[in-house]
Amino acid sequence: MLLLSGLVIVGLAALIHGYIFYLESVSWTSERTRAIFGTSVEGAAATRQLAFNQGFYNLFLALQVIAGIVVFALGSVPVGVALILAGAGSMVLAGMVLMASDSGKAGAALKQLLPPLIGLIVLVIGLF
Prior knowledge:
single chain, 128 residues, 6 helices
């Protein structure tokens, strides 16, 4: 049961990072996304290329976790766990970097790092 719970939670973390990809790489200059990130029209235009690139980092982490879940479900547990640990672990570390670099972004950082961290903890406990 813990294994399944851990997989579901890291899967949710992957969905969150997929959504972040959408915000950063697809809708960065939209009014709604600017409100979420607290950026002005000028600021969003000036950072559009950076956000576009950063969004793909989030997408690739999400895809790595999803690939790990699929591989795990297909029976290659060690490979699946390795993919999940690398992808979700990177999500956690990226959230920690965000928090360390800008304390005003602590809320966003926690949204980014808590789901994968909780999922990893539950998954690792379930493995033992």
